[in-house]
Amino acid sequence: MSRDTPVDDEETAYRVAALPLEYGRTRINQLFTRGYNRYIVDGEDQPDDLLNDIERFGTAAFKEQVRDDAAEEPFVDEPGTLAVLATLSAICVKEHPKFEQSRPRNIQVLYDIRELYVNNLASLIRTDGGSSLQQDIADVLYSKDPGEDGPHPGQVCTGIKEMPEFGEGLYLEIPMAAASRKCLVRGGDGQSGTTDGGEILTRVKDNHLYVPVGDFDSKYREYAERAFQKLLHVQEAGLSEDQLTWLTTNESAITERIDRFLETGQHERVWRNWDRGERTIRVLQRALSDAPDDVAQRGEFHSAKELYRAVEAYEPEDSWETSVADGISSPSSLAKTLADHQSHSAVTIDRDGRVNTYRIGRGGHGAEQIEVTEIEDLFELPCMANMEDRLHEKKPVRKDLYNFARMVMWLPQYRNSSLDEIVADLKDVFSRWPWYDDQETEYQIRYEFSNTIDGDTPLPMNCDNDDLQRYCIGQDQCPYSIWGSLPFPDEMYEQVDDQSAGPSERF
Amino acid sequence: MTWRQATREEIYDYYAEEFPTYVDDLPQFITADGPKQYAIAFREPHPVRNDGVPDRDFIRRDTWQTDASGERTTSEFSDFEDVLEFIRHPARNDPLGRSKYALADPDLLEKPSPRPDAVYYALDHWKRPWVLLVDIDAKEIARERATTQVSEDIDDQDDDAQLDAAGILDAPPAGYPYAFEDIDRAIEYGFEVRDIFEADFDAEETMVVYSGQGVHVYLLDTDPAHRYDEQSREVLNDLLLETYDIPIDPVVTADRRRVARLPYSLHADVCSIVQPIESPHFDVRSATPEVIDE
């Protein structure tokens, strides 16, 4: 390993700041040391300067324009300083008395600080980082998960080049043997690595893929969000009680700014879940579930007028629902809200007709519905059909069995069945396979059902689950999605909602 | 020429008389112990020794016994003649021997000895990275052709109705869900893929195999730059389908657990010899075995 540390070597500092998930605490703390060293002049600490910069960074982060501008022009010009200011600002926010009982993921101002950090870092890397750093980052961003043949042994990104034959701009060069779907960039709204969306923009030449460099920027942004979490954790763990007290006693600007937001009722600037669109859609979903089928239904196209009628008839359970429902004052205000949130995964707008119609789904992919009257019907899903084929040849791996049993357990017709009934029906299906053994299968199925997560029924696997990829025909090929096509009850999706706000947005 | 199902006797005659003359032409990686498995499909399910286990119409047999850590211990077929014996009389030469999962001995049954409707080998291989194969199926091409030809207002949207309305079921070979022109098109696509492999993917060793109802295109280079694992193959799939617009079967390409029809085996549903071909002008009517009486 190189003897250069982030304390004394700028290139190493950039590397650790850019890829903290690849480094341990020691290196990250050295990056912070580099940042703190800037506030030592002639051997003397300059706490006032540090505090001043923390407050400046934290309050600036609340301004959208500043966050946006930082993506082009760095707000802070040095990686160590940036890491220190962003993490200490975030700690000031978390220590605000108002947030004592709050989960960090519900606090909007933390997202703002993270965004300023991410934008700032991305522009620093672009202007100062040099192409070898970008290549190293690309190695991390585009590396594939180890497969049956182990990790790819060579470099993932072998160059960043101009390729005039493919059009203007730079391209990341990735050997075909190192390629994964992450490298397939799509035009339009399509995200790289996903299977829906526009045409593939990645090109092929000489057994290499050429990925437009713009994709690197958006991938790095996603990475940097997780990277910031790690920096924050390391900073929090490294602060002594005294240091924390000093910080929270002396810092006032960030705290006051948050107080002012609260006093003036700017909840959306403080709280993450104060998202009017999200809440409106949640209320619409519930109202549609409650509405008689001949009035309006989830998953069907309706005019704004019909949706408005369903909301009017809906009797909210929670106070937040009441306030959202009251806020929908007319079909046209509803139409406007939906138009503002047309990118929401649950909203589809059809503008082809005389009047616009709107479909409120469950979120997730558009998916053909499957009517499940018996377990057999699950094999209409191509992945389940593939699994079925496979099970004729080989015994199931545990996750296959788990997945199968869990999927069945969540089907509406089995929600209130006795375990004996479920086991009997499952055995009926399993008995077609050559490895079937009555007693062993019974034991295994019962074992799967006895597995709970803190008393909650575990969710069935969804299409993104790694273990399903063995059987998946590719989400771009498949007209179905497991969570979208099967008639799972709302309580399952509510459990999904509760869990999905978790890890990806946790600070 | 014949385009019909081969009889039991014809199948047996083919593997007893004609197939052995092609054994020397088999691609080099197809040996007694190279592919990890050989597999056979039967027209009628055949019982296995264990009473409680359902009859089997498809069996896979490993080429090696392995220990708990997956290391090879004993080879099941010591030379290709053993594989041949297994193909000719699967139930009498089942490598599973006296295991209760082995095929039941035909002497103890009223049913006749099963004959292979199709013979396969595993793409997963002991001695080389798994074999990369792209499958192009005339059925898919015919289905797409039917969809574009038949007006959408036909009430019945199921496949057969569309194929019928497009005249495909009646076109020679009558009764099959594709026409000869669809197979010819599949072969053309196959050579396009071969050209793509050579031009854009720097492949040196390629092969196009007529599969009976389409083609298999192989990329056989084994150098590190061509060791495409499952994830790289998914990328290749997407590129072939979308960027190059080739109607491949994407499931086969990315899955190392798949089996492929053994070159020079008989596609018994159409009386055709599966075989490597050199030109997009290959006449599928020439693939009928000599043992088949027209």
Plain-language structure description:
Chain A is an alpha+beta fold and 507 residues long. In chain A, 51% of the residues lie in helices and 7% in strands. Chain A has 21 helices and nine strands. In chain A, a hairpin with a 2-residue loop joins strand 5 (203-205) and strand 6 (208-212). Chain A starts with 9 loop residues before the first helix and ends in a 7-residue tail after the last helix. Chain B has helices spanning 8-22, 80-88, 138-149, 159-165, 180-200, 230-243, 250-254, and strands spanning 37-46, 56-62, 64-66, 72-75, 116-122, 132-137, 206-210, 214-219, 259-261, 266-267, 272-273, 275-277. In chain B, helix 3 (138-149) packs across helix 4 and helix 3 (138-149) packs across helix 5. Chain B has 294 residues and is α+β, with helices and mostly antiparallel strands. Chain B starts with 7 loop residues before the first helix and ends in a 17-residue tail after the last strand. In chain B, 28% of the residues lie in helices and 20% in strands.
Layout of secondary structure:
The complex is a heterodimer of chains A (507) and B (294).
Chain A: H1 10-18, H2 25-37, E1 40-41, E2 44-45, H3 47-61, H4 64-70, H5 79-94, H6 108-142, E3 159-162, E4 170-175, E5 203-205, E6 208-212, H7 213-238, H8 241-250, H9 253-263, H10 267-270, H11 276-290, E7 301-303, H12 304-313, H13 319-327, H14 331-340, E8 347-350, E9 357-360, H15 382-393, H16 398-410, H17 412-415, H18 419-430, H19 438-450, H20 482-485, H21 490-500
Chain B: H1 8-22, E1 37-46, E2 56-62, E3 64-66, E4 72-75, H2 80-88, E5 116-122, E6 132-137, H3 138-149, H4 159-165, H5 180-200, E7 206-210, E8 214-219, H6 230-243, H7 250-254, E9 259-261, E10 266-267, E11 272-273, E12 275-277
Antiparallel strand pairs in B: 1-2, 1-5, 3-4, 5-9, 6-8, 7-8, 7-12, 10-11
Helix pairs in contact in B: 3-4, 3-5
